[in-house]
């Protein structure tokens, strides 16, 4: 079968639709707060638009760079070293929102944990593609493959950012299974990690979040405030919503309405119908991404495309699940929708690599 001459146009189109939707909803959710805090309703969405433009430029450039250049330790090892360095440097930065997640350079903030996602995916795609026939060798293949993911997860969890660490864990597990790892090793890994995860969830601030998850009304003005206000917003939207820009919870009730809880604002203003349409957009994006992965011409491309797609889908799943109280609060943005400069730039750059792979998909 002839190879596709151009990128997957539907994948590119759905990406643009998600970006435009995100900018529109960021403006709706942030205009009043931005006016109050920065004396301009456009300050937050303006920054997001600039970052989206930078991300689109990166997407277009990377969509024209042959993906095979990433299939080399000469590129990946330096990328791993730089990522680990940034994940360590972040601990020497000032605390923001009770966490060490951002590096601030002359007013420019970025999150190293966002960079860790595509770096990890590309590393695993390279490493596993060279060992497809050795996936039963738990000592020389599986344990070695787990070293970098575990290092990333430990550093990110200590920021603390358990949500992103869990996304990396999920993507790593799925890529290992796709590469041919036996399911029994996955179950062994999950069983080994459960005590550590339970300890994390039942200690420190995670314990308070778990209590708020199971009983938000136990501390309605404290740790339960976010989820209570989020559920009020979702419930108030009904079937068709209150209308664009007409949401009430974003008016200093719902924290992070333009960021981690933007889906709650979408549900309130666009209703159940608008929420379902957004979910369908992500589902279609996932289908096109996985289609690219399973039609890729080689194992590295297949694993890389699969990893990029599942990273975005897992983030969307975690974010929306938190908003509707299916999971405890984790602080994960909704990809391409939530405000966050590093997130949208890195996500679009990753999609650029995915689009390049689609050029050679069958």
Largest sheet: 2 strands, antiparallel
> With helices defined by DSSP (H or I, 4 residues minimum), what is the helix count?
12
* Spatial order of strands in the largest sheet: 1-2
Strand content: under 5%
* Low-confidence runs: none
Class from secondary-structure proportions? mainly alpha
What is the β-strand count?
Answer: 2
Q: Gap between N and C termini, in Å? A: 6 Å
Order of helices and strands: HHHEEHHHHHHHHH
As a whole number of angstroms, the C-alpha radius of gyration is 20 Å
Question: What is the overall pLDDT average?
Answer: 91
Q: What is the share of helical residues?
A: 55-70%
- What is the number of independent domains? 1
Shape: globular
Mind explaining what this structure looks like?
The protein is mainly α and 362 residues long. It has one domain (9-359). The protein is 67% helix and 2% strand. It contains 12 helices and 2 strands. The protein has helices spanning 9-38, 43-62, 73-89, 112-129, 138-157, 162-179, 183-201, 204-214, 225-237, 262-294, 299-323, 341-359, and strands at 103-105, 108-110. A two-stranded antiparallel sheet has the order 1-2. Helix 5 (138-157) runs antiparallel to helix 6 and helix 6 (162-179) packs antiparallel against helix 11. The model has no long low-confidence stretch (mean pLDDT 91).
